[in-house]
């Protein structure tokens, strides 16, 4: 008896539904941000006692405040783009929205005019549109400065924010490498 192989095909989902589900995934990810008061609690700041504790502190804080840090970096980038022109902010903001909807938060295959668009094609399109947008608005340097300042703020906060009182969800801790499995 010869072994049988089964092939699975994806169910075509209209583009509007893909976008709607992507927006839902994006809003649910943003809703996981921590309260801003917890981010700036005054009694929680101190330098680590040992340099060896720094990587764990960085990982814990980045895992715990990841959505807040993304908002801080995005805000710094937006302020830097306003200095170039409001058009640059709108164009780059639109490109970022496209990346979020069609790459990072999309679960289903993209169907356009009854054809399924592959992930590589989506990535190539998003990359080319991003390069065009940054070239068109002449905002590469300003965007790099804004993102750099945002990252510097987040890294500084992550280093001096004491992470001892932060409690991660179990799944976040496992995927972040903070909890390991000891298989003996």
From TrEMBL:
<keyword id="KW-1133">Transmembrane helix</keyword>
<feature type="transmembrane region" description="Helical">
    <location>
        <begin position="62"/>
        <end position="81"/>
    </location>
</feature>
<feature type="transmembrane region" description="Helical">
    <location>
        <begin position="141"/>
        <end position="160"/>
    </location>
</feature>
<keyword id="KW-0813">Transport</keyword>
<comment type="similarity">
    <text>Belongs to the PRA1 family.</text>
</comment>
<keyword id="KW-0812">Transmembrane</keyword>
<protein>
    <recommendedName>
        <fullName>PRA1 family protein</fullName>
    </recommendedName>
</protein>
<feature type="transmembrane region" description="Helical">
    <location>
        <begin position="117"/>
        <end position="135"/>
    </location>
</feature>
<dbReference type="GO" id="GO:0005783">
    <property type="term" value="C:endoplasmic reticulum"/>
</dbReference>
<dbReference type="GO" id="GO:0005794">
    <property type="term" value="C:Golgi apparatus"/>
</dbReference>
<dbReference type="InterPro" id="IPR004895">
    <property type="entry name" value="Prenylated_rab_accept_PRA1"/>
</dbReference>
<comment type="function">
    <text>May be involved in both secretory and endocytic intracellular trafficking in the endosomal/prevacuolar compartments.</text>
</comment>
<dbReference type="Pfam" id="PF03208">
    <property type="entry name" value="PRA1"/>
</dbReference>
<keyword id="KW-0472">Membrane</keyword>
<dbReference type="GO" id="GO:0016020">
    <property type="term" value="C:membrane"/>
</dbReference>
<dbReference type="GO" id="GO:0016192">
    <property type="term" value="P:vesicle-mediated transport"/>
</dbReference>
